[in-house]
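Input structure tokens:
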């Protein structure tokens, strides 16, 4: 359904965005990247983030705190939803199909380089870590707020912005959204950077060279900030037996 929706869109336009925008198969690389990141997050982290408030309510967080292992690591990897990896397989198929089309197009065919295949999974990992950081920070607020289903809904609303190219926000009042979701809550760079590396390789000159570095800094800040929030929340936790 998702692919069909964008096939219909590209029947009415040749590109999403203006200068430096995304043509049809370039955007399908973008879409495959979205599936890669979301499938990893939903497989390894989503079930555990949803379970965190239950651990607090039932008092089972006490047992996690007593184990000789980092509490955040233990809570983050208690369960794995292997069914969500079906989206990962679909992403592989869509990515391969799109790259074949891009490399065989008659005008300006894409030239694949070994550096692209090294940087692409690395920045996908960065995207996963940013998404995880936002999720675990919101889940940690369960200690202060109890059940926080509204915050999970907030996570879905915020991460929906990552499903679209950042170029579409660069007009009018959209610039405010672009700035907020690039530098404050950096969800726009989660998919945009790895997808652009693969479909539209970043040039070493011009205004694009700094985006990978912004992605690295955003990942580091997101991970450290979520760790701080998690530790701060645990400091406010009162044992179920107290």
């Amino acid at each position: 359904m998702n692919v069909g929706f964008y096939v219909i869109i590209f029947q009415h336009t040749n590109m999403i965005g203006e200068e430096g925008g995304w043509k049809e198969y370039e955007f399908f690389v973008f879409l495959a990247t979205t599936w890669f990141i979301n499938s990893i997050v939903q497989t390894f982290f989503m079930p555990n983030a949803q379970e965190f408030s239950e651990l607090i309510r039932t008092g089972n967080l006490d047992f996690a705190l007593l184990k000789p292992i980092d509490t955040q690591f233990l809570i983050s990897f208690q369960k794995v939803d292997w069914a969500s990896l079906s989206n990962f397989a679909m992403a592989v198929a869509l990515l391969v199909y799109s790259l074949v089309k891009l490399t065989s197009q008659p005008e300006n065919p894409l030239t694949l380089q070994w550096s692209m295949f090294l940087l692409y999974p690395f920045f996908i990992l960065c995207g996963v870590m940013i998404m995880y950081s936002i999720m675990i920070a919101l889940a940690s607020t369960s200690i202060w707020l109890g059940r926080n289903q509204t915050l999970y809904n907030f996570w879905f609303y915020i991460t929906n912005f990552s499903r679209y190219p950042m170029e579409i926000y660069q007009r009018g009042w959209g610039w405010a959204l672009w700035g907020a979701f690039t530098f404050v809550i950096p969800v726009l760079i989660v998919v945009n950077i790895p997808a652009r590396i693969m479909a539209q390789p970043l040039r070493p000159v011009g205004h694009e060279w700094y985006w990978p570095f912004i992605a690295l800094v955003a990942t580091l800040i997101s991970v450290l900030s979520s760790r701080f929030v998690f530790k701060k929340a645990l400091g406010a936790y009162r044992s179920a037996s107290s």
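Residues 20-235 form one domain. The chain is about 70% helix and 0% strand.
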